[in-house]
């Protein structure tokens, strides 16, 4: 099956979104500058090639197969979940499975209703329109999208004031595929217009090992199964991080040996890049250290933690905390952040009596 035609829409005059403070790039699940080309060759081209997310794949296969059998465009699809789990890849696969073109844009680029109208008017019948980070779409554009999704038409306002007129514009049937990392920020009317909603889950080590092995084969990197499992176990359950770590391990192996990645090379590279056995980086460990050694395990406010590690509160709250909470090392309470027994043990310290998560024998 050949690659689908992809078009990215860039709205003139749209300001780029403000950048978040950066975590260690090796374990930041968001796409990094210049990483698109590296990821492009690693993306699977079909549902059969896609690793992980078995429930989403089976449900989506039913949706697409049913639409093809009836000869209609599939329902609109909403993909939600943390960054790096394959939402954009899944949108490309949907277009590939339907044998149609993929048109790509993002929520922050749609600042005005006219931006969306210009984009919708260029769609052909059966096209797949992909809007990334749709929760950040401007309200006027969102309200125009309601009618486009339901009735495949929009009303274009021409002129201003008393002389303004509304011109109805019919749209060809299309499928909207939207991605969001914050489904709770979507408005009810927008969420309800999607016929199929999929929640992308974090990957387990077994599936991530398959991701690393597949990527190594595509990149022509020789790798041991033990080394692939080591990389997978430190990838925070995220394929994008796994692929990124593989490329850094490949660099290490090429510089320090013959380029073959064995367990020793994988561990050596991950040590150089400050990614420990639990997938924590320097900033993660600094937060735990400030919480435990600096404040006795908490409770501590996020602003105090941010000052202690020299970062912005938003960095600690949006970049570090989600993984530390998921790993069971930090608990968020009304009084502040508390370190669990697992966090004390990760730093090689004995948790005091009464620590959250400490087993009593």
Automatic annotation (TrEMBL):
Mg(2+) binds at residue 88. Residues 73-206 form the AAA+ ATPase domain. It comes from the Bacteria. Residues 1-42 are annotated as: Disordered. CDD domains: AAA. GO terms for biological process: DNA recombination; DNA repair. Residues 23-203 are annotated as: Large ATPase domain (RuvB-L). GO terms for molecular function: ATP binding; ATP hydrolysis activity; four-way junction DNA binding; four-way junction helicase activity. InterPro entries: AAA+_ATPase, AAA_lid_4, DNA_helicase_Holl-junc_RuvB, P-loop_NTPase, RuvB-like_N, RuvB_wg_C, WH-like_DNA-bd_sf, WH_DNA-bd_sf. Keywords: ATP-binding, Cytoplasm, DNA damage, DNA recombination, DNA repair, DNA-binding, Helicase, Hydrolase, Nucleotide-binding. One of its GO terms (cellular component) is Holliday junction resolvase complex. Its main location: cytoplasm. ATP binds at residues 42-43, 84, 87-89, 150-152, 193, 203, 240. SUPFAM superfamilies: P-loop containing nucleoside triphosphate hydrolases, Winged helix' DNA-binding domain. The RuvA-RuvB-RuvC complex processes Holliday junction (HJ) DNA during genetic recombination and DNA repair, while the RuvA-RuvB complex plays an important role in the rescue of blocked DNA replication forks via replication fork reversal (RFR). RuvA specifically binds to HJ cruciform DNA, conferring on it an open structure. The RuvB hexamer acts as an ATP-dependent pump, pulling dsDNA into and through the RuvAB complex. RuvB forms 2 homohexamers on either side of HJ DNA bound by 1 or 2 RuvA tetramers; 4 subunits per hexamer contact DNA at a time. Homohexamer. Forms an RuvA(8)-RuvB(12)-Holliday junction (HJ) complex. HJ DNA is sandwiched between 2 RuvA tetramers; dsDNA enters through RuvA and exits via RuvB. An RuvB hexamer assembles on each DNA strand where it exits the tetramer. Each RuvB hexamer is contacted by two RuvA subunits (via domain III) on 2 adjacent RuvB subunits; this complex drives branch migration. In the full resolvosome a probable DNA-RuvA(4)-RuvB(12)-RuvC(2) complex forms which resolves the HJ. This is Holliday junction branch migration complex subunit RuvB.
